[in-house]
């Protein structure tokens, strides 16, 4: 028992305690670092999942594609009649709202043709298109020409505004099979608006948005 009282034992014991303390400190730091790295990885994974469809991507990320698509439609319309004017744009999307999905239809009219509109429908996935003359009474009607100076919002921006103003709530409580976005002149004041229609099997919700400033028209 006298050995326990000797300085050498006390020194050894103290050293052992110091080493144990250092080891515990390093171990705790490593565990904390691993936990932090795991949390960061989970955060990035969650963010990756969130950025999965048209409701949460950067609304300007597809501007180049949208502009190019509209330019092709304008060019094809001009080949038929240089007097054609754009009177409406309709975007049809599946209920999943996946990026690059659906199709966009550009509708043109000419003062020389009182009966038909000319339409070109472009796939948002492949870029392939179909053209046709369609009687006004069958589709869109006799609308006035769009003033492109007031066309400030693309369909993605309009969709995201609609989501924040009742669209998301509607999707959460209904099985939405299609979302249609139509750009056209309409009441009030015959201004340019996006009409965002959420279509479910048994119901529909429409949200009207000013295409110039993004304000929602209260109905």
From TrEMBL:
* Domain of life where this protein originates: Bacteria
Record lineage: Bacteria, Candidatus Berkelbacteria
Name of this chain's protein: PepSY domain-containing protein
């Amino acid at each position: 028992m006298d050995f326990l009282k000797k300085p050498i034992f006390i020194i050894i014991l103290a050293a052992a305690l110091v080493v144990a303390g250092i080891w515990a400190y390093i171990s705790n730091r490593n565990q904390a670092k691993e936990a932090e790295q795991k949390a960061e990885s989970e955060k990035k994974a969650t963010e990756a999942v969130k950025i999965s469809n048209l409701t949460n991507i950067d609304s300007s990320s597809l501007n180049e594609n949208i502009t190019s698509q509209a330019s092709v439609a304008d060019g094809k319309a001009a080949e038929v009649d240089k007097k054609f004017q754009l009177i409406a744009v309709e975007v049809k999307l599946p209920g999943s709202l996946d990026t690059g999905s659906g199709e966009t239809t550009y509708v043109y009219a000419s003062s020389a043709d009182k009966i038909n509109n000319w339409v070109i429908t472009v796939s948002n996935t492949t870029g392939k298109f179909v053209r046709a003359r369609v009687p006004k009474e069958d589709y869109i009607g006799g609308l006035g020409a769009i003033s492109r100076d007031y066309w400030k919002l693309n369909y993605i921006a309009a969709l995201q505004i609609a989501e924040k103003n009742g669209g998301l709530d509607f999707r959460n409580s209904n099985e939405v099979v299609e979302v249609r976005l139509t750009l056209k002149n309409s009441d009030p004041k015959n201004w340019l608006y996006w009409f965002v229609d959420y279509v479910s099997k048994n119901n529909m919700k429409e949200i009207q948005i000013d295409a110039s400033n993004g304000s929602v028209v209260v109905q």
